């Protein structure tokens, strides 16, 4: 077996140029062909290297590297073909060819398994179609996102500008807190949003109301079903009614439970419903009173006439009998006054109603009360007020205010008899009503308040807190009728309970002249 040195021994060999008889045209044909082929081969790995360096996302980078080695080896064989034309280094040429053969076999063995995977690579047309579909899908998603943003903006506007108070509460480890509220909620409670969001119900409501609301929150969260209820609270304008709706929101990824709620002030609606029933009842009572007054007026007049004649015909010495006749006449006059007030219960608004300043009528009533009760040591004051144009008859409004003042005076005097050191004040105020387009005339006293026993029937006819024979119980009903005839209402509430200045406040709520009455024909 020849040795490796013998394989590369060139002493007994001649170059290929001898075989070509050193003919220049044949030599240069082989030289040029092999040189161009070798150069072309060696330029391909350069291109592949640039592609591999710049494209880090190639699927099979090792296949490109292996192919580059194979091309370099092929190019080397062509350059050695030029070399052996003049130098017989056939051993070196054979070794290079053997290396080229090995690289070729390895490359072929490695490439054939890649054939299915290479064929599975999408074509340019497929990629273009996929890119077109992807572009269309992106456009559709962008359009959907734009619609979602628009819808979210509309919902946000709906949340922000809805007249009902909306709020979202979040469950925490310590209870429930308001996560967000809309401006109507802030206006309803007269609190800034920054003070509400992040706070619990106990920081906004009374302890009883907060406990009730927290219980509803917990029930809605546990049952997962909507809650719908009504509640009441005491406010500056009297008792208010609230309608609350609570629905659970889908839980977030972190498991936080949230509830969406709406709060609506239905005081006017409930008041209207109550007033409709009350109006019908008062109409029935008024009709009955008018009928009774009509039937009784003639006998009372006859009794008064004959009593007066009898008194005039009595002998001068019959003083006791004359005194009896005078008592009869006094009581018949009182009964006549009562019958006249009973007729007033059934009277509607005067047809000659006209616009006038309520402040002037109220001032006149206060002046009358101040002069008449100067010896009672009761402080009657009228607070400064703006102009309040209403529609009706000034004399009737003055009469209604006088009824309220008389009622307040009687309450203050009764309390003074029980508590000699109790304050004796009656304060009258005129201010804008809670309902837009209305004015509230309030008469506030320090008489201790309306007893709970008669509170539900306080405005009914013939209901009075005075001792028997001291009142008819028609003053407040007459004020109610006057307010109703002017398109308003009369309401009342106890205030400052438990304090020395405790008493009752009666409010005449009237529509302003030129405004549509908010509760025409209502009675509180």
Considering the chains and any ligands shown, give keywords for the structure:
His_kinase_dom, 14 helices, 5-stranded antiparallel β-sheet, 5-stranded mixed β-sheet, alpha+beta, 12 strands, disordered C terminus, 4 domains, single chain, Helix Hairpins, 524 residues, Beta-Lactamase, transmembrane helix, histidine kinase, EC 2.7.13.3
Classify the helix fraction into a percent range.
40-55%
Q: What does the overall shape look like?
A: rod-shaped
Number of helices: 14
The secondary-structure class comes to alpha+beta
- CATH architectural grouping of the largest domain: 2-Layer Sandwich
CATH class of the largest domain: Alpha Beta
Distance from first to last alpha carbon:
131 Å
- Work out the number of β strands: 12
For the largest sheet, list the strands in their spatial order.
2-1-5-4-3
Q: Specify the biggest β-sheet.
A: 5 strands, antiparallel
| Strand proportion | 15-25%
Total domain count: 4
Domain Histidine kinase: 291-514
Catalytic activity: ATP + protein L-histidine = ADP + protein N-phospho-L-histidine
Domain PAC: 227-278
EC number: 2.7.13.3
Describe it.
This protein has 524 residues and is α+β, with helices and mostly antiparallel strands. The chain has four domains: 4-120, no CATH class; 162-265, PAS domain (Beta-Lactamase, 2-Layer Sandwich); 269-347, Helix Hairpins (Orthogonal Bundle); 352-524, Heat Shock Protein 90. Helix content is 54%, strand content 17%. The protein contains 14 helices and twelve strands. It has helices spanning 4-7, 16-19, 24-54, 61-83, 90-120, 124-161, 183-189, 193-196, 207-223, 267-313, 319-345, 358-372, 394-418, 475-485, and strands spanning 165-172, 175-181, 227-235, 238-248, 258-265, 354-357, 379-382, 389-392, 425-432, 438-445, 489-495, 503-511. The strands form three sheets. The chain has a five-stranded antiparallel sheet, sandwiched between helices. A five-stranded mixed sheet has the order 7-9-10-12-11, with helices on one face. The radius of gyration is 53 Å and the shape is rod-shaped. Mean pLDDT is 80; it is low at 516-524. The chain crosses the membrane at residues 27-51, 63-86. Its EC number is 2.7.13.3. Residues 291-514 form the Histidine kinase domain. Residues 127-154 form a coiled coil. One of its GO terms (molecular function) is ATP binding.
